[in-house]
């Protein structure tokens, strides 16, 4: 099946809006408005809004990847293959203990932990807290919230279950590595 490439073969003046094309577009809109009347605006304005968002989408799509993007690790096997065996493992959720979301591998010698799939240097951790995410209308798990100094990952949150004592123990274990 032949790929439709007529869009990619458009002239440069159509792909890259310049001052000239902008002025010509405005003149064309004014001529249509004068010729057809005010009701035309009801048809043209939504088209212009959609065209604006489409141009922004194309611009966003062609931008290079952000250099501050966080490298997410998805499995414990991937973590151990990349960094080796951890010095300690903090179990945060007994149900998910064999997944990244249920355990925090601690690499004390290298100076980092991996919480919720994100590598966090221990020196970047500002504070660790447990928060009950329940409301009067819903039942929700406790979350451990790690506040970091790095702006790329300011807050790391993960569920630890419905037990307050368990959440407090997880916070204490993380604090143990942060402080000492």
Describe the structure.
With 180 residues, this protein is of the alpha+beta class. The protein has five helices and seven strands, in the order ααααβββββββα. It has a four-stranded antiparallel β-sheet, with helices on both faces. It has a three-stranded antiparallel β-sheet with strand order 5-6-7, with helices on one face. Strand 2 and strand 3 (112-115) form a beta hairpin. Helix 2 (19-36) packs antiparallel against helix 3 (39-61). The N and C termini lie far apart (63 Å).
SSE inventory with pairings:
Blueprint: H1 12-15, H2 19-36, H3 39-61, H4 76-83, E1 88-91, E2 103-107, E3 112-115, E4 118-121, E5 125-132, E6 142-148, E7 155-161, H5 164-179
Antiparallel strand pairs: 1-2, 2-3, 3-4, 5-6, 6-7
Helix pairs in contact: 2-3
Major sheet attributes: 4 strands, antiparallel
- Tell me roughly what share of residues is in helical segments: 25-40%
Number of continuous helical runs: 5
Radius of gyration: 27 Å
Strand content: 15-25%
Count of beta strands:
7
Q: Give the strand order, joined by hyphens, for the main sheet.
A: 1-2-3-4
Q: What best-fitting shape do the alpha-carbon axes yield? A: elongated
The chain-level mean pLDDT equals 81
Summarize the structure.
This protein is an alpha+beta fold. It has helices at 12-15, 19-36, 39-61, 76-83, 164-179, and strands at residues 88-91, 103-107, 112-115, 118-121, 125-132, 142-148, 155-161. The longest helix is centred in the N-terminal third of the chain and has 23 residues, at 39-61.
Features:
22% strand; 180 residues; alpha+beta; three-stranded antiparallel β-sheet
